[in-house]
Design goal:
Elements (H helix, E strand, L loop, with lengths): L1 H31 L3 H18 L4 H14 L7 H16 L5 H15 L3 H22 L4 H12 L9 H17 L11 H12 L2
Helix pairs in contact: 1-2, 2-3, 3-4, 3-5, 4-5, 5-6, 7-8, 7-9, 8-9
Length: 206
């Protein structure tokens, strides 16, 4: 019995190591992906990892994130169809666990749809984006990516509606402080610091 228990433990450890190595490899590829084809391929890869693991939300998160990076590309015209793909991955992840990182991606998916027609979509997709941000901050008020996204929303909102660079600047500064103090767990998201620094620089320019 002891030998069997040891064999099971060793097998589980080997599977865990394989999962970690596979995830690390593909996260590195995601960080350096240049083309839509690369991102689409990675989204599919992460989705398959999630389907194989069944109890881990991170593969589906990264599938959704890869699909989100596709949605920011100007050559992608059908933002609604792309957001449907993002939400399908998020649904799989949220069936396992709901957390701030997933709400951050949900915010971006809704924002992409809202930006197709801001005037007419502000009360639908814009509201969804804001609600996702609020849920994320309730789940984890120290998540730096949420403040980056909040700052981007403020920077893109006209001054007469409570936005503008002056309102966004302290939010970006808070985000950077949180990035600098963050101690991310293995395989967890770390993206956003460079984007926040670039956005803060825009706030400081005339």
């Amino acid at each position: 019995m002891i030998a069997l228990a040891l064999l099971v433990a060793l097998t589980g450890h080997a599977q865990s190591d394989k999962y970690t190595q596979t995830m690390q490899k593909n996260i590195t590829l995601l960080d350096s992906a240049k083309t839509i084809d690369d991102l689409q391929s990675l989204a599919g890869t992460f989705d398959r990892i999630g389907d194989a693991e069944k109890t881990k939300w991170l593969p589906y998160y990264y599938a959704a994130l890869a699909q989100t990076w596709i949605g920011w590309r100007p050559e992608v015209k059908d933002k609604d169809a792309n957001s449907d793909k993002i939400r399908a991955y998020l649904a799989k992840a949220e069936a396992i666990e709901k957390n701030a990182e997933l709400y951050a991606v949900e915010n971006m998916a809704s924002t992409q749809q809202m930006l197709v027609d801001p005037q007419n979509r502000w009360m639908t997709n814009g509201k969804e984006a804001g609600e996702a941000l609020q849920k994320g901050m309730q789940a984890d008020p120290n998540n730096p990516r949420l403040y980056y996204l909040q700052g981007m929303s403020l920077m893109g909102t006209p001054q007469q509606f409570g936005g503008g660079k002056d309102k966004a600047k302290p939010v970006f500064e808070k985000s950077i402080a949180l990035y600098n103090s963050a101690k991310p767990q293995p395989l967890y998201p770390t993206w956003g610091l460079k984007q926040t620094q670039d956005a803060l620089a825009q706030c400081s320019s005339k």
